[in-house]
Amino acid sequence: MITESGRVVAVSGNTVWVQTIRQSACQSCSARSGCGQRVLAAASGGRANQVQVLNTLHAGVGDDVTLGIAEQALLQASLLVYALPLLLMVVASIAANQLVPGSDGVAILAAGLGLGAGFFIARRWQRHMPGDYQPHLMKVNKHAPAQAL
């Protein structure tokens, strides 16, 4: 399970909006010196992100929460979003080059169409794939109300 800490910023029906700052994993990762995610987090100043999740643990605004998502779900989603479009781009380019030898323009156009088709198929396929790709509330740390002086 991959986890991330955050704070509830809004409650909307049976869901909550959780604000996270993606830096906690970077501090303990052994690949942090060569990681693109660390570079992006540093460039954005550790900018906060918000995600909507089901409020299964009755969290309230201001509560610190821990979100989790299964590693298998993250791996499958990554392969679908990155590998499928690239694979279709390469296959379309090779097929176009075989059909019209020596025409680089046709191969480039086919590669672009293959890439676009890959993104389209990935988007449609992910809606029908079995599995849970949404983060879940794992733990809630309730904040005590502030005392008036």
UniProtKB/TrEMBL annotation:
Q: Where are the transmembrane segments?
A: 79-99, 105-122
Q: Which UniProt keywords apply?
A: Membrane, Transmembrane, Transmembrane helix
Q: What is this protein called?
A: Sigma E positive regulator RseC/MucC
This protein's record includes keyword DNA damage? no
Species, as recorded: Marinobacter psychrophilus
Q: Which InterPro entries match?
A: RseC, SigmaE_reg_RseC_MucC
Q: Name one Pfam family in it.
A: RseC_MucC
Tell me yes or no: is Nuclease among this UniProt entry's keywords.
no
